[in-house]
From TrEMBL:
S100/CaBP-9k-type calcium binding subdomain domain mapped to chain residues: 7-48
Domain of life: Eukaryota
Gene Ontology CC terms, in alphabetical order: extracellular space; perinuclear region of cytoplasm
Protein's recorded name: S100 calcium binding protein A14
Regions annotated as coiled coil: none
An annotated GO BP: positive regulation of monocyte chemotaxis
PANTHER family, sorted: PROTEIN S100-A14, S100 CALCIUM-BINDING PROTEIN
Single annotated GO MF: chemokine receptor binding
Amino acid sequence: TAELTDVERAIETVINQFHCYAVKGQKEYLTPNEMQELVVQKLPHLGKCVGPLDEKIECMGDPDEAKLEFGEYWDMMGDAAKGCRRKKTLEKKKKKQR
């Protein structure tokens, strides 16, 4: 079999982390608490640069009962990546203005 590209490995990692934090893969969703744990442990830098991620987790509802399915998780990861990219773009613009 062909070796995965860097991007394919990155996608595989995002998928595997979802299943790892979904109580050791026993279900197909994350609770807000599990999502927060994933962000703190696996995305310490990304989580810090993207405020709306924390807000979205808080808006999910009961931290032990609400359910974040994979599609929603994927969307949140995309939103986090976009937020981080925007922040880096702004930082570059500020440096150029100096």
